[in-house]
Amino acid sequence: MAKLSVEEVKHVAKLARLAITDEEAEKFATQLGAITDFANELQELDTTDVVPTTHVLPVHNVFREDIPAKGLDRDLMMKNVKEQQDGLVKVPPIIAQ
Predict the structure, then answer these.
(1) Total domain count, the chain
(2) What is the value of pTM for the model shown?
(3) What is the rounded distance in angstroms from the CA atom of residue 80 to the CA atom of residue 78?
């Protein structure tokens, strides 16, 4: 089993902005080594007759027809607005000045 070095694990942790202890680095070195060994085993498989897939199920997006339609009447909508100014909805400021 290929084991990553503790320095490599600490370097990757630093790149990911993770704080790990020396004990964790040692543990992860062994675990990550096992993962890379498994990935290397997968590389040895013959996949020449396997069709590439992005998903195991035949999923597809369902979209409705994009048909332009007349919008709601502005005056009718503005009747429900508490505060308005120049035909627009007036809201409280969210950034203090």
Answers:
(1) 1
(2) 0.48
(3) 5
